[in-house]
Every structure is written in structure tokens, then in C-alpha cells.
Amino acid sequence: MSGHGQNAGDAPSHGDNGNDQKNSISLSGAVAMGTGVMIGAGIFALTGQIAELAGPLFPLSFIAGALVTSLAAYSYIKMSNAWPSSGGIAMILQKAYGPGVIAASASLLMALSMVINESLVARTFATYALRPLGQENNALMLSVVALAVILLAYIVNASGNRSVSLFSLVMSVIKIGGIVLFAIAAIWVSGIGTGAFAEVAAPARPMDFVASVAFAILAFKGFTTITNSGGEIVDPHRNVGRTIMISIAICAVTYLLVAVAVGSSLTIPEITAARDYSLSAAAEPALGAWGFYFTIAIALAATASGVIASVFAVTRMLTMLTDMKMIPHSHFGMSGGIRSHMLVYTVVVAGALAVLFDLSRIATLGAFFYLIMDMLVHWGVFRKLRHEIGAKASVLLAALAADAIVLAAFTTAKLGSDPAIVGYALLGIVAVFAGEALYLRKVANASPRDQ
């Protein structure tokens, strides 16, 4: 999920350090980038939370999440095929709504969901790092380790690494290969008819199952990285859509294998109890100490690289939004360009969220922000752009309806289990729209000299 430091007219970005080049990302590199962002906290932390809501049917939540995400991807693919810009989601929203409050607010919600994802991945890294020490429930240690990995991501990004595509490709192969190896081995040892799948348990309520799909969608939303990097992908008119669908398919198969492996090793109460580290909990009974430490190692590699990639992505998107005058900016006395400032702001906000909220609440905030933004994208494309880009109204409306159903079920479930986080999410969304309205009004009323 990255945004290029360019405005809608492809003007040079302030603070661009020359790392981005047109047609510089191959098809395999783009797939690696998308899957690399998706396969992080999505599978290592959210599996337990999905199982808590969906019960023994939780592997199907990932399938449902893949289907809803594939529907959602239609809008982004059609827009990227027509205008393969590195402006990404902000470009889509500007074309759909014009340079006003809705486009700016929805773009900022997307950026915030990306920052939230950094916190989620960092907190997941901390949980797995502390698991062998028996400190995975130590709130202070979790905060310290999460902050440490966010600081590491800052250092790596500040160094100006020019090999992000190659790095993502190598790490994706390691992550996916390791996770699939764990899943196949666990299923082979435990069998499929054991653990959660052998329980005589009442099926989840339909509303809870649908609510679980919100977390599954969160595990797939990294495909937007590809949309936001459209102008940098080789043959973008052809490859952006292919990359998105290949990435979703790879992640769907990987997530399903992991869900079956976890469910075959642990009962639903055991998965719920270990929801923040369910993969390592499932590895030990199935594969012994070797499997336990192997899963820990894969989790640490996946989440560390995920934090680095996510910080890189959100920094670029916030730089682009600043250049487009969609969000305010202050140097706070710092030297350097806008991107270097955004890097600092990103890690500060992500670090604060990692300290203030647990994994469940971080994921919940991310799901709310992302679903609202996604619905605004579909409605804008349907209302203004579908004829221009040749999009089918039925598919756009189906994607919008799917998001609305999942959002309604998710809100209902969270109002029952954690109403405070629903309030935080609502407050955050209102603050974003109100803040953008005030900022854009100030920009419009300012004299050219002041701007």
C-alpha cells in the first residue's frame, strides 16, 4: 500500500529522493510486494481472532474474505487499467469526487489504516518474539519490543534502500515457503478431523461469521500496494490487474492451509486463548519443539519485513497527499524533505498505537477505517466513472453491498464485545472528516502568497 510522492498531474514530489522509477517493478516484483504486505500480521495474529468469532468454520472466513476482496479489487483494477498512476487510491478518489473533503478524508483514512497496520504487525512481532520467554502477555515488554521493531523500520527506511522490490521478492519466498511448509507438516501430523474440526460445537451465529470476514478482509487489503504503485509496474495496463488477482489467490491458498493446520492442532477454546500467537501455539503439539521455534522464526522474519515495507509504503502515500495539498504539513523544525518528515510522523503514530492498544483493538480500528474508505471508492467509481472506464454497475454495487454487510455485522459484534473501540473508530472517522473540512477551507481562503 504505497503512494508515490506525486500529485494527480504527476508533478515531481517534494522530498523525492529518486528511488521511484517508471516501469521499474516487474510482475514478479509487484506480486512479491503485494503478498509481502498481506502476509504479515494478517495470518500470524488474525487467525485466532477470526476463529473466536467464526468457530470451527473459521477457515471459510478466509475464503469469504478472498471473495469479498476480489469483488473490491474490481474497482481498483478498472481504474488502474485506465489510469495506471502512482497516485493510487488518492488518484481514484480525486477523479471520483474532485479535490474536496470526501476525497481527502477517504485518502487519509486509507493512510491511517496503513499506519494502524504497522502497529498491528509490530505488536505481532513482539508477541512472537516474547513467546519463547513466556512473556507474551507482559504489556510493558510487548510495548518495548514493538517500539524497537518500529525503530528498526525507521532506520532501514531512512537509509534510502533502493532494492525494495528485490528485498520484497526474497522475503516473500521465505515467508510463504516457510508458512506453507509449517501448514502442510502440521496437517500431515495431526490429520484434518482433529482439533477444532473434531469438536461437537454449536456453529457460529451467522452474524458472527460475517463479522469475522472483516478481519479476513484486513488480511488481504495489502493488494492496494499494487494499485498505489501502478505507474512503476512494467506494462501497467496489463500487469496491475494480473498482479492483484495473483496476489489474492496466493494469499487465499496460504491462509486456508494455515487455518486448517491451526484448526487440526488446537480446539477453538485453545485457539481463542492463544489468539495473538495461534500459529506458534498450534506448532508445538503438532510438530514439537522444532516446529515451535521454526514457526517463531518465520513469524519474526515475516513481521519484521512487513513493518519495514509498511513504513515505506505509508510514508510515500502521506508524502503524495501532502504534495496534493490534501493534508496539512509542518516541519516542526526538522531539516530535510517532506518524505523524511513523514517517515518520522509515521513511526511516532505507529509507535503510540502499538503502546496504547492491544492486537484486537488495533485490528478493529484498521478494519473500520479500511471498509469505510473502500465503500467510498466503490460508490465514487459507480456514480461518476463507470462509463468512462467500462466498469459493470452490477459488480460495483455487489462490492459495495458486500462491504456494507460485513461492516454492519462487524459493528454489531463489536458493540456487543467491545463498544468502546466502536466509539474510538467513530470518533476517529468524524475527526478526519471535520479536520479535512477545516484544512481545505483554510487552503481555499488563503491568498496565493500564503499558500
Automatic annotation (TrEMBL):
<feature type="transmembrane region" description="Helical">
    <location>
        <begin position="288"/>
        <end position="315"/>
    </location>
</feature>
<feature type="transmembrane region" description="Helical">
    <location>
        <begin position="139"/>
        <end position="157"/>
    </location>
</feature>
<feature type="transmembrane region" description="Helical">
    <location>
        <begin position="97"/>
        <end position="116"/>
    </location>
</feature>
<feature type="region of interest" description="Disordered">
    <location>
        <begin position="1"/>
        <end position="20"/>
    </location>
</feature>
<feature type="transmembrane region" description="Helical">
    <location>
        <begin position="30"/>
        <end position="51"/>
    </location>
</feature>
<feature type="transmembrane region" description="Helical">
    <location>
        <begin position="164"/>
        <end position="189"/>
    </location>
</feature>
<feature type="transmembrane region" description="Helical">
    <location>
        <begin position="362"/>
        <end position="382"/>
    </location>
</feature>
<dbReference type="GO" id="GO:0015179">
    <property type="term" value="F:L-amino acid transmembrane transporter activity"/>
</dbReference>
<feature type="transmembrane region" description="Helical">
    <location>
        <begin position="209"/>
        <end position="231"/>
    </location>
</feature>
<protein>
    <submittedName>
        <fullName>Amino acid/polyamine/organocation transporter (APC superfamily)</fullName>
    </submittedName>
</protein>
<feature type="transmembrane region" description="Helical">
    <location>
        <begin position="57"/>
        <end position="77"/>
    </location>
</feature>
<feature type="transmembrane region" description="Helical">
    <location>
        <begin position="243"/>
        <end position="268"/>
    </location>
</feature>
<feature type="transmembrane region" description="Helical">
    <location>
        <begin position="336"/>
        <end position="356"/>
    </location>
</feature>
<keyword id="KW-0812">Transmembrane</keyword>
<keyword id="KW-0472">Membrane</keyword>
<dbReference type="Pfam" id="PF13520">
    <property type="entry name" value="AA_permease_2"/>
</dbReference>
<dbReference type="GO" id="GO:0016020">
    <property type="term" value="C:membrane"/>
</dbReference>
<feature type="transmembrane region" description="Helical">
    <location>
        <begin position="421"/>
        <end position="440"/>
    </location>
</feature>
<keyword id="KW-1133">Transmembrane helix</keyword>
<dbReference type="InterPro" id="IPR002293">
    <property type="entry name" value="AA/rel_permease1"/>
</dbReference>
<feature type="transmembrane region" description="Helical">
    <location>
        <begin position="394"/>
        <end position="415"/>
    </location>
</feature>
<dbReference type="InterPro" id="IPR050598">
    <property type="entry name" value="AminoAcid_Transporter"/>
</dbReference>
